[in-house]
Design brief:
homodimer; 42% helix; 374 residues; 8-stranded parallel beta barrel; globular
């Protein structure tokens, strides 16, 4: 692999202050400006919003969950619709996970062997099986633009031995995924494991690069470890990943995590946090999170965030949003989600601009000082 | 009262075939073309949609529930926002009910005396009281454009004696409401009771006209009686109401009920049916209702109604909507509600056109023949 080779990732600029980079990922669906945040659309919808709401908030790519769609409505059904984009009416790009993480979350309902993952549906208990090859086939049926290899998840904490065994299995599965990947207009990303051992992370990153993928993800973080450890592991991994491929930190995280991930050279993020928090009434502002159910907002005629330009902040007060949340009105989840996604996606847009202007260090300082002003 | 006097209602045209009429109601917020359907916005939101969705569907006026808003967030709080229009960001007109129907629905939690209705909050059991004067004050605080008198509800079936007693109390309350009505830029409607006794309906309509209101509602129907009886009572009431005031059939009903109500001279309707059915997966089409959860739709690539131009029908298939409903996704309620409201509001627009063209009888025949084509 030479740095000059043609890859789906183009590096536009590199911060002079840290590992942050400004680039783009080309999928068959379009071009994604990075660093990017991907809203999570588990079951063929980003919960509580329309595709138009997503586009208005600036979403370029969303994530679909293979496990959920495999179980319902079924990947073959989605394929007959021409894929997930058509099914859900989303014009942007779609990244699908492999289903591995959800299967592992089933715990006693799942059994991992060399061959793959045997598990039971959380809906009806049906016995199901997903091999690395199946994971690629299912994602191809879903019409995913960026597919993920089936990987094994490593609990935290885990011994060095457990970590090596699981990481080795992930490598063998990755090679099988790579071989099964026959629709080459879609991208396939490998997932770097290695637990909390920097040198295992480094070795695994090298192993995956030998197999050769269209991008590299950092898996197995944000699983209960300290923030500092997560950030060190991120840094240890991006440091050994090739410059001319995109790096995706899976399932992360808070606004602070995004800033710190970008600082350490990450290009792509996904997390349920903005959408899930919205449905729990936890709303992001430049000065930190607010819990809209708090009685202090019942006569507050100001918007969630005075600096926000989203539909919700342009049209509604905190008092009204508190009322909707207390009354369990569906509109509450809709309006809160529009705001939180706007917050995340505009944070990423601001980060991209800061890297372009090579002042990300000052941006980061401002970001933290505003957080402290609450 | 002379037919030539200035009233908030203007009659544009009268069908030559039946009692249907095309007109308009002027409120301080704007002009409402009638016959009109009013979506129900119980708690300061029409459930699962935004004000923009309502406007796009053609809503001119919505209904707010005084009982609910009185309890939460409180009418004084809404008043501090400049009224319900500001609070919920709705630019059209608002009619509020008096709270009477909801209080009666509380059954053993409510006690009716000459003075008013004592009841307990369904939320926290707090002891509350609403007199006819309070009902007007609360609605004035809410900033309602069309307010309703506090009335007593008559169970079905009810004896002649029970009906007379309840209707007489409603008359005394109506006179007190009229007297309490001091913000005269808002309209106040009287509610004709009289149960299932045509001559009591006639007498009550006359009594209310003597008091003098800005419009007249037909209350106490759709309470369990046969459709035929409801239609006869509607006809018996509209027949004795003045031509130059609008008539509002409360809490009704199905698409067929709207057509039959208009046929009998009704100008205004409200009902939770389109919104509530939407959340239960029951969707209206020109050929009748469909239950979107039915397995027959799981591979159906057509829209809910091929003739519908709503956002949901333009963008999504029955199969996708079935998937969302099965997965209990919030987007399901949003998209279904957009469709059902569009169906109701466009039915009314088509009815208005048919009356303008004086071919409502033929419209009504077509309407039923399409229903039978399912």
């Amino acid at each position: 692999m030479k740095d000059s080779e043609q890859t789906p990732f183009t590096l536009h600029s590199q911060s002079s202050e840290c590992a942050a980079r400004r680039g783009e990922v080309k999928t068959r669906q379009g071009v994604i400006q990075t660093p990017v945040f991907m809203p999570v659309g588990t079951q063929g919808t980003v919960k509580a919003v329309t595709p138009e709401n997503l586009a208005e908030a600036g979403a370029q790519i969303i994530l679909g969950n293979t496990y959920h769609l495999f179980i319902r409505p079924g990947h073959k059904r989605v394929e007959r619709f021409g894929g997930l984009h058509q099914f859900m009416n989303w014009k942007g790009s779609i990244l699908t996970d492999s289903g591995g993480f959800q299967i592992f979350s089933l715990k006693e309902l799942a059994k991992i062997t060399e061959e793959g993952a045997a598990f039971r549906s959380h809906l009806d208990g049906a016995k199901l099986f997903l091999s690395p090859e199946d994971a690629v086939q299912v994602q191809q049926s879903l019409g995913s633009d960026i597919m993920m290899c089936l990987d094994t998840c490593i609990p935290y904490p885990a011994s060095r031995k457990e970590t090596i065994d699981a990481t080795d299995l992930t490598s063998r599965w990755a090679a099988r995924c790579r071989k099964a990947h026959d629709k080459r207009d879609r991208l396939l990303f490998g997932i770097v494991q290695g637990g909390m051992f920097p040198e295992l992370r480094r070795q695994h990153a090298e192993t995956l690069q030998e197999i050769g993928f269209d991008g590299y993800a950092i898996g197995g973080l944000s699983v209960g470890e300290e923030k500092e450890l997560m950030r060190d592991m991120t840094e240890a991994t991006t440091a050994v990943l090739p410059e001319n491929y995109s790096r995706y930190l899976m399932g992360v995280g808070t606004p602070e995590d995004l800033v710190e991930g970008v600082w350490r050279g990450v290009d792509m993020f996904d997390c349920v946090m903005p959408t899930r928090n919205a449905r729990n009434g936890s709303l992001f502002t430049q000065h930190g999170k607010i819990s809209i159910k708090n009685a202090r907002y019942q006569d507050d005629h100001s918007p969630i965030d005075a600096n926000c330009s989203c539909y919700t902040c342009r049209k509604y007060t905190r008092a009204y949003l508190r009322h909707l949340f207390q009354a369990r009105e569906i509109l509450s989840y809709h309006l809160n989600t529009i705001h939180n996604l706007h917050f995340y996606l505009h944070l990423m847009a601001d980060i991209r601009k800061a890297i372009e202007n090579d002042n990300f260090a000052s941006f980061r300082k401002d970001f933290y000082s505003k957080l402290e002003q609450e």
